[in-house]
Amino acid sequence: MSTFPPAVVFSAPTVTSHLFETHRQFYKELKIYHKFANELYFPECWIPHCTFAIGLNKDSLLRTFEHCLNQFQPFDGQITEIGIVKIEFVDGIHSSKTIFAKRL
Question: Which of 17, 34, 52, 93 fits a 20 to 30 Å CA distance from 86?
Answer without folding.
Answer: 17
